């Protein structure tokens, strides 16, 4: 597959800077038919997938096509395969899929393609060729997570020690890449990366795993998705220690709170709404007969820290104040 960076702005001058935040241009796509697109993510619960769904639905409304969110309630290969089969039986024209497993769902996806459906990946691909893929460069983002942890440890004067990794599973492409990048960041250092433990994206399981790591005396813990990161942050909070460095992946209100309260140093925030938007556009183009060439588009990631969240909050407060002032001026002029 060809690889394409849609448009990235690189910033390296401040804490919480962008690792690769895209500047995505608005595009109007005209559908040549009454297309039905099924969006099937790993689950329907994580805020990451909800944001992707909302981006897809917004784009579908603008382009006058139908999008239905058909994700399973939990991360489970069998349930995701059932969703794919239901989309085929339901006469959908295209699939937007975030594959729970590279291999397990590939057979069902190939059957969908054989039935005449177009396939576009969002977030996580399987081992079947698709029209296009819109995802984070997960290995690069994982390496950034590792570098952020090293920096935070060194700021505390910690130059060695053991580090735990809480991953989703050993079959999801995104999870594999995020861990590979994280481990790469520690090559040549004196830190010891312990054997990875898997939580299937469940925050409660992740917290138990992280608590076990803390009992072993780790200096840092990395969570590779929203559920894993939530569990890591909650475990550090429960420990009462301010010496353990927690780094997460994904963005949610819960994770923002854990960062603001000091239980996580940062999280790698993706752009799932852009994945959803661009995924719908790609489905329409493919259904219109356009050859997308299997291109992979990096939708970017940013590092959210306590400092960057504070800056965002200040900007929102200022914008709200400006809006209130403008409203008052309008009311006075009307009087």
From TrEMBL:
InterPro entries: Peripla_BP_I, SBP_2_dom. Residues 1-25 form the signal peptide. Its main location: other. It is found in: Cell envelope. It comes from the Bacteria. Residues 310-335 have a biased composition (Acidic residues). Residues 306-335 are annotated as: Disordered. Belongs to the bacterial solute-binding protein 2 family. This is BMP family ABC transporter substrate-binding protein. It comes from Blautia obeum.
């Amino acid at each position: 597959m060809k690889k394409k960076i849609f448009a990235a702005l690189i910033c390296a001058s401040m804490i919480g800077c962008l690792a690769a935040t895209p500047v995505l241009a608005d595009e109007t796509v005209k559908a040549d038919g009454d297309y039905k697109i099924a969006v099937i993510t790993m689950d329907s619960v994580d805020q990451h997938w909800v944001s992707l769904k909302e981006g897809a639905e917004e784009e579908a409304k603008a382009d006058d096509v139908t999008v239905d969110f058909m994700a399973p309630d939990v991360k489970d290969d069998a349930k995701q395969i059932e969703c794919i089969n239901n989309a085929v039986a339901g006469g959908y024209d295209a699939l937007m899929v975030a594959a729970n497993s590279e291999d397990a769902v590939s057979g069902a996806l190939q059957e969908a393609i054989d039935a005449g459906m177009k396939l576009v990946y969002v977030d996580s691909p399987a081992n079947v060729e698709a029209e296009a893929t819109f995802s984070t460069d997960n290995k690069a983002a994982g390496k950034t997570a590792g570098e952020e942890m090293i920096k935070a440890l060194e700021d505390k004067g910690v130059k060695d020690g053991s580090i735990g990794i809480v991953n989703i599973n050993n079959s999801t492409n995104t999870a594999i890449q995020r861990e590979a990048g994280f481990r790469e960041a520690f090559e040549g250092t004196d830190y010891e990366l312990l054997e990875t433990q898997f939580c299937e994206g469940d925050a409660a399981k992740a917290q138990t795993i992280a608590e076990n790591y803390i009992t072993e005396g780790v200096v840092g813990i990395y969570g590779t998705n929203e559920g894993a990161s939530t569990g890591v942050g909650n475990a550090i909070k429960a420990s009462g220690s301010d010496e353990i460095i927690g780094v997460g992946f994904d963005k949610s209100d819960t994770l923002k709170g854990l960062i603001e309260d000091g239980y996580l140093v940062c999280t790698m925030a993706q752009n799932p709404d852009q994945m959803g938007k661009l995924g719908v556009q790609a489905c329409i183009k493919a259904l219109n007969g356009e050859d997308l060439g299997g291109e992979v588009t990096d939708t970017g990631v940013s590092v959210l820290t306590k400092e960057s969240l504070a800056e965002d909050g200040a900007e929102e407060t200022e914008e709200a104040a400006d809006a209130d002032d403008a409203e008052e001026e309008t009311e006075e002029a009307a009087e």
